Amino acid sequence: MSGFGERPRELKWYHAGPILFGDWGTSRLYVLGLAFAFNGRASFWMVAAMSLVLIAVGWCYTIACRLFPDGGGVYSSAQQRSQLLAVFGGLLLCADYVVTASLSCLEAFHYLGIKDYTILGILPVDAALAALGILAIGAVNVLGPTKTGTAAMIVAMATVVFTLIIGVACLPYLGNMVVESPFKEGPGRAWVGFTEIILALSGVEAIANMTGVMVQPVGRTAKRAILPVMTEIVLLNLILCAAMLTLADDVLYRLDPETGGLVPAHTGDMIKVIAETYVGPAFAAASGVCFAALLFSAVNTAVGALVSVLFMLSRDRELPEAFGRLNRFGMPKLPLVIAAVVPAVVVVVFPYVESLGGLYAIGIVGAIGINLGSIATNRALDIRRGERILMAGVTLLLIAIEITIVFDKPDARSFALVVLAAGLSARLGTMAIHPAVPLGQLTRRGYVISGVVLTLAVLFVEIAFHDTLGGFAVSAVLVCVLAGASYKVQQFRPEILAYRSRRVEVELGPDGKPLETRPKRLMMVPGGYKPKARVMVATQGNPRLLKFAFEEAKNRHAELQILFLRHLAVTPMGLVEPPKLDEDEDALKLFEQVREQAKKEGVPIRLLYGVARDIPDAILDMAVTHGADLLMLGATRRGTLWKAMKGDVISGVAEQLPESVGLLLVA
């Protein structure tokens, strides 16, 4: 066994809906404040217009989920049009997840009442705490995802309840809403104000990444998950925005001590202020804690999603192999470091909601635009004419918004350009140095060095000249050069995907040339007797367990089956190749030790390797498939908290093990 196995389709619509709300619905907690910050009392019309976009995009994603039932989101859809376009979409999605983690964690502390304080008058306290919070969540994820799905669902549902109560309490006062025309400063300013709240779309991409585990038919399941969430978001956004505009100016504004002018006072915690006004301070405090919990959950989701994208790109040979290496708990090591450190740095560099909002928008708009545009222009897909027209129209709107963000938000375009340059450089180097690519050493080094130099050049230009159109033009050209080089080397992608490394040992003849080449690994080693039974032991190298297993196999005259399961704790987006035994140094080392011990003990052995998300299920499957008469497991010393967070493998196996297979626990 060496693979994921068939992914169980267990996600029902009433499970997917709360998960989607935890991503998509979270945007409300900062969109209303941003809407007022950029549009003032004209924000109701902007939120209303954005609601129409939300409905259109939500409907488009019901189509996307139907067409791509195996998940993957923008990467899967764009891959059918252009591999390079798929990489662009994946990198923009990475940019989106980075800022999701940064903004969500910052807003969580705002809803807890921590804001407007600085450290030595330089670094805002909320930004510092947000950075530490992201790093802490990343550290927890070193152990792999915890069994907190139920808790996250409860928090999401509690958020809906709190928001509904606030919305109902506001209804009698909506007639007092004070609204201004969005065209007060001209249509151009109105359009820019509209683009400022486009991050209301953030989170919708999550549903497209769930389809691989949804119950069939996926299209119906996805639609039943999307439509209720979309309806709740649209209706309550409008009600809460109207309630916001009933508040007095002395609530919505504060005096800026530096400029002496009025500035928005509650960009980061607007819904909490509405709750305090129309329900009460105690309720507002309780709702603030609930909203903060939802935002922390969104941080955890964003970190996991970023790890998944980077892992997927690595397994698809688009990023270096180092991005696919797992720790002992099944988490990709390097992607997890990036997913924790980069958002923490971003929130320190951009410590305000307004600046993070701009960074956020450019990634999510680009990713959604590429996704819908790829589907709309793909004639091979079974789409009705009206659906294709809708997707094409939404794509054109998103392109216009993206162009506006590029020219209106220098920090956002700098961030996107640096992410694209770094990703394309890594892709170029990954392909150029791959042994399947027929290039000379000088050419390989040239590609790698060029990628690094061009990326550093983009970084320098964006630091020194990020607020100038000239700097943007230079960086854009450099990124295009990287993309062109990456596209040129991409011609060898079929050879890269077909390549399978094999570890071999070579005997040399007298002339120093290979005399014989044979596979190094033997997965079955005969013993000194004919086996009468089969004993399976699941282990990653416990010496006491292995010693006892060899003794038990000898006493029973049994074949000893050594099962090494590599836990894959992250769920890749879409269909990707699982890690192989060739890449697992721990498993290779253990199997070599076991071979030597088997020869010494005279015990026949069978070596089994697998990669699994559900360890108990994989152990059960292997025990039944290979006809084990006895299954041996090592008893864990981990405590109650660990078992509550990560689950208990022994209990999971014991509950489902067939009666024909004995279970022996070794302390």
TrEMBL record:
<feature type="transmembrane region" description="Helical">
    <location>
        <begin position="194"/>
        <end position="213"/>
    </location>
</feature>
<dbReference type="GO" id="GO:0016020">
    <property type="term" value="C:membrane"/>
</dbReference>
<keyword id="KW-0472">Membrane</keyword>
<feature type="transmembrane region" description="Helical">
    <location>
        <begin position="334"/>
        <end position="353"/>
    </location>
</feature>
<feature type="transmembrane region" description="Helical">
    <location>
        <begin position="84"/>
        <end position="111"/>
    </location>
</feature>
<feature type="transmembrane region" description="Helical">
    <location>
        <begin position="413"/>
        <end position="434"/>
    </location>
</feature>
<feature type="transmembrane region" description="Helical">
    <location>
        <begin position="359"/>
        <end position="377"/>
    </location>
</feature>
<feature type="transmembrane region" description="Helical">
    <location>
        <begin position="471"/>
        <end position="489"/>
    </location>
</feature>
<dbReference type="InterPro" id="IPR014729">
    <property type="entry name" value="Rossmann-like_a/b/a_fold"/>
</dbReference>
<keyword id="KW-1133">Transmembrane helix</keyword>
<dbReference type="InterPro" id="IPR006016">
    <property type="entry name" value="UspA"/>
</dbReference>
<feature type="transmembrane region" description="Helical">
    <location>
        <begin position="446"/>
        <end position="465"/>
    </location>
</feature>
<feature type="domain" description="UspA">
    <location>
        <begin position="534"/>
        <end position="661"/>
    </location>
</feature>
<protein>
    <submittedName>
        <fullName>UspA domain-containing protein</fullName>
    </submittedName>
</protein>
<feature type="transmembrane region" description="Helical">
    <location>
        <begin position="225"/>
        <end position="248"/>
    </location>
</feature>
<feature type="transmembrane region" description="Helical">
    <location>
        <begin position="389"/>
        <end position="407"/>
    </location>
</feature>
<feature type="transmembrane region" description="Helical">
    <location>
        <begin position="152"/>
        <end position="174"/>
    </location>
</feature>
<dbReference type="Pfam" id="PF00582">
    <property type="entry name" value="Usp"/>
</dbReference>
<feature type="transmembrane region" description="Helical">
    <location>
        <begin position="44"/>
        <end position="64"/>
    </location>
</feature>
<keyword id="KW-0812">Transmembrane</keyword>
<feature type="transmembrane region" description="Helical">
    <location>
        <begin position="117"/>
        <end position="140"/>
    </location>
</feature>
<dbReference type="InterPro" id="IPR050367">
    <property type="entry name" value="APC_superfamily"/>
</dbReference>
<feature type="transmembrane region" description="Helical">
    <location>
        <begin position="282"/>
        <end position="313"/>
    </location>
</feature>
<feature type="transmembrane region" description="Helical">
    <location>
        <begin position="20"/>
        <end position="38"/>
    </location>
</feature>
